[in-house]
Amino acid sequence: MARLGRYFLPDQPLHVIQRGNNRQPIFFCEGDYLRLHGWLAEAAAAHDCAVHAYVLMTNHLHLLVTPGNQKSLPCTMQALGRRAAPLPRGRRRKPSDDPGPNLL
């Protein structure tokens, strides 16, 4: 079942929290924080999203943003995720390496 769409109220600041997968760390060194800071600035400017405040923690980030239109925040977060997701973090497992609880 599809999830319900978000409500959009013009000119209302929003508190956004983005966590790492299973609350794992998403920042490992000073350079990671600096890269994300730059990517956030680029994405927010490109998609008309005003960032008022942010906090970058080791395993998540908080943003206080005011989107300029209904698509601003989703497009900003999508652009940010596309840049941050490919960062290599050690060895990537193939699905066959970890069968998990659902393998019969």
SS class: alpha+beta
Order of helices and strands: EHEEH
| Largest sheet, spatial ordering of strands | 1-3-2
| Fourth-tier CATH superfamily name of the domain at 14-85 | Transposase IS200-like
Report the principal-axis shape: globular
Q: How many beta strands in the DSSP annotation? A: 3
CATH architecture of the domain at 14-85: 2-Layer Sandwich
Helix content: 25-40%
Total number of helices: 2
Query: Compute the gyration radius: what is it?
Result: 16 Å
CATH topology of the domain at 14-85: Alpha-Beta Plaits
Which strand-content bin applies to the residues?
A: 15-25%
Quick structural gist:
This protein is an alpha+beta fold and 104 residues long.
Task: Give a structural overview.
- The mean pLDDT is about 85.
- The protein contains 2 helices and 3 strands, in the order βαββα.
- It is α+β, with helices and mostly antiparallel strands.
- The longest helix has 17 residues, at about 30-45.
- The chain has a 3-stranded antiparallel beta sheet.
- It has a domain at about 15-85: Alpha-Beta Plaits (2-Layer Sandwich).
- The chain is about 30% helix and about 20% strand.
- The protein has helices at about 30-45, 70-85, and strands at about 15-20, 50-55, 60-65.
